[in-house]
Design goal:
- The complex is a heterodimer.
- By secondary structure, chain A is mainly α.
- Chain A has a domain of 87 residues.
- Chain A has 13 helices and no strands.
- In chain A, α2 packs antiparallel against α4, α2 packs parallel to α7 and α4 packs parallel to α8.
- Chain A is flat and about 70 Å long.
- By secondary structure, chain B is α/β, with parallel strands linked by helices.
- Chain B folds into 2 domains: 222 residues, P-loop containing nucleotide triphosphate hydrolases (Rossmann fold, 3-Layer(aba) Sandwich), CATH 3.40.50; 71 residues, Alpha-Beta Plaits (2-Layer Sandwich).
- Chain B contains 10 helices and 14 strands.
- Chain B has a 6-stranded mixed beta sheet with strand order 6-7-8-3-9-10, sandwiched between helices.
- The relative contact order of chain B is 0.14.
- Classes of the chains: A mainly alpha, B alpha/beta.
- Chains A and B meet through α1 and α6 of A and α1, β6 and α2 of B.
Chain lengths: 309, 321
């Protein structure tokens, strides 16, 4: 049987060619490496590596510090890349031509997102030598490195999808970048606000019920409340670093907060915190991409536009 | 090849295209003429599936562009009036990119690219970066790009806009070649004499309506009667120039097809609605009345004057949707 050749998304292929020739890509990589170098030097210096006595416990911090720093870098750089993806096509006036071709609007949006992911992968590969310093000094396992790379890809995918969505609804790239940061921050803050409100409601409900019994409210009575934070894109990243740095996980923290009153269902949910929250947020990301595809689709009724002829 | 039926497109309260009906046969080169805001671009964008019509339908080779816009994408090639290009992409890579969007790859792509670059006279530029090409070259590359999937209908929205005379000539040659290859082409332009040379038929749009359409010769024939006649006389009598003008004016106004006479410094300009035969009779009448005619000619027919006459303006008014 003749094997079907796996075809690369043409948008992704073109973006890779164009971005690899751009000086911006080399400059960005240089900045990332420079920042990671400074972080490594700072950690080594603070641990006393350049003096006669070493503080080995602080050297272990190299892995989480580098990991969190790169997560932050990806969180800020990917929106900049993706926020100009669709709006850039509009600015270059190439979007109309793309829309006359058989490629679907979803493939256009995914191609743009995947090209940003390719850039993320390049940053990740570039940063591996820095992370690997932690191997020499201790504090991480191979599985941690593999997990960290997956976390980078996941964060890049999420933030990138928000960027592609904003790029499809805003005409100018700068406005799309700002909107991406605003929407990203709103999602993060929104999950905490919702969590706080739920906790407060739960506490007051407990207080009223227990006041009658003459007891004080303690811990979370509704064990599902912390699950709200699963909608925060950084929820799995938090659990990942918590597990890498300590013997604790989100499950243990919630179990303590609930005073061990968790039932089997919620026990499963909190134990599978990382895969479940990744699944939820990847689904949200795909929803953002789908919305971007719908937004650029010509079958929708468009708003007024300037009529030339 | 192209059938537009009662096409209407509204942008809010603004009526961009109003009940447009049009038929363009296979192998025809159809020219769209009209002032800015007439609805040409809107019509072309609906034909290409880039805009959804408010009502009506567009059929490309029997397939509805409104009901199944994805099906007509392989039948239509679109060249917009701008040529958006990607930085850091070579001419061949640009062609390969668009080819891959239509599923064309490998050696087929190479053959098609070479053929199309030769057609648009860009073979020697195949390894150049697209953003380093001149405006005319970019526009020709855009035509080659639109032909990559061998569409049956090519839609060109003001392809000559902003090009210098040399680039216009080269573009015209490319389009003539395409016409001779049997491609159905719809082209809009403000450079009307060029359209007259290239197109087999034209349609004149104004305020979203098609106010005239048909073969170029037929429309020319219709407009023939309104072209003015320029008459120069030689005054050998004792009469003053004013008296000579009065005599000529009286004589001309007695003729059945003369609508108006005006005088410039050295000639009379006569608004004449008669045919060619009737203009010859007018000349005979003037000569037989004893006038010495040193020059008698009728303005040449061209689309520019026809366009101005039919649209009744200078065709430059901008309209916002």
């Amino acid at each position: 049987m003749k094997k079907k050749k796996l075809k690369m998304n043409p948008i992704l292929k073109k973006e890779l060619v164009v971005s690899s020739r751009s000086i911006k890509m080399s400059m960005a990589l240089m900045c990332v490496c420079g920042m990671l170098t400074l972080i490594v030097i700072a950690v080594l210096f603070s641990s006393g590596s350049f003096r006669y006595s070493y503080d080995y416990s602080s050297l272990i911090m190299l892995f989480p510090v580098l990991g969190i720093a790169e997560c932050a870098l990806i969180s800020f750089m990917v929106p900049i890349i993706t926020a100009s993806s669709i709006s850039g096509e509009r600015e270059r006036q190439t979007l109309d031509i793309l829309l006359t071709t058989p490629i679907s609007t979803f493939s256009i949006a995914m191609g743009k997102l995947n090209s940003a992911m390719a850039v993320v992968l390049m940053y990740v590969v570039t940063s591996i030598p820095f992370i690997s310093i932690a191997f020499v000094l201790g504090g991480m396992k191979w599985t941690s490195l593999f997990g960290l790379i997956l976390m980078y890809i996941y964060i890049g995918f999420y933030v990138g999808s928000v960027g592609v969505f904003c790029s499809s609804i805003v005409k100018k790239s700068i406005a799309a970048t700002i909107l991406t940061v605003v929407i990203g921050c709103s999602i993060i803050a929104g999950s905490f606000i919702l969590y706080g409100i739920s906790l407060s409601v739960d506490y007051h409900a407990q207080a009223e019920a227990l006041l009658a019994a003459g007891k004080e409210a303690s811990g979370i009575s509704a064990t599902g409340i912390p699950a709200i934070l699963m909608f925060n894109p950084y929820a799995p990243v938090f659990d990942f670093f918590l597990r890498s740095l300590s013997s604790y996980s989100v499950y243990e923290l919630v179990d303590r907060a609930c005073n061990g009153k968790m039932n089997g269902f919620w026990e499963f949910i909190y134990k599978a915190w990382i895969p479940l929250s990744v699944l939820i947020n990847v689904a949200i990301s795909l929803l953002f991409v789908k919305c971007a595809a719908l937004k650029i689709s010509v079958t929708r009724n468009k708003k007024k536009r300037k009529v030339k002829g | 090849m192209l059938e537009i039926q009662n096409l209407t497109k509204r942008y809010g309260k603004f009526l961009a295209v109003n009940e447009l009906n049009l038929h363009v046969g296979k192998g025809e080169i159809f020219g769209f003429v009209g002032p800015n805001g007439a609805g040409k671009t809107t019509t072309m964008r609906v034909v290409c599936g880039l805009l959804k019509a408010t009502s009506g339908d567009v059929f490309v080779d029997g397939i509805s562009a409104i009901k199944s816009p994805s099906s007509i994408k392989r039948k239509v090639g679109y060249v917009p009036d701008f040529f958006g290009v990607y930085d850091n992409l070579k001419v061949t890579e640009y062609m390969e990119f668009y080819g891959s969007l239509y599923g064309i790859e490998g050696s087929d792509m190479e053959t098609i690219t070479d053929g199309l670059l030769e057609l648009v006279n860009l073979t020697d530029k195949k390894d150049f970066y697209v953003d380093t090409l001149s405006r005319g070259m970019k526009q020709r590359l855009c035509v080659a790009r639109a032909l990559i999937h061998d569409p049956e209908l090519l839609v060109l929205d003001e392809p000559n806009s902003g090009l210098d005379p040399r680039a216009r000539f080269e573009m015209k040659e490319v389009l003539k070649n395409l016409g001779s290859m049997g491609k159905t082409i719809i082209i809009s332009s403000h450079i009307l004499p060029e359209l007259a040379e290239m197109c087999s038929s034209i349609g004149i749009m104004e305020k979203g309506r098609l106010i005239a359409s048909g073969k170029v010769e037929e429309i020319m024939e219709k407009s023939f009667g309104s072209r003015p006649i320029h008459i120069k006389t030689f005054n050998d009598s004792q009469a003053s120039e004013e008296e000579a003008h009065d005599n000529l004016n009286r004589l001309l106004m007695e003729q059945p097809n003369v609508k108006r006479v005006s005088f410039t410094e050295d000639e009379a300009v006569v608004t004449f609605t008669g045919s060619e035969e009737e203009s010859a009779k007018l000349l005979k009448c003037l000569v037989s009345s004893g006038m010495l005619i040193s020059d008698f000619y009728r303005e040449k027919e061209d689309l520019e004057s026809l366009f101005l006459e039919i649209t009744g303006g200078d065709g430059n008014e901008e309209k916002e949707a």
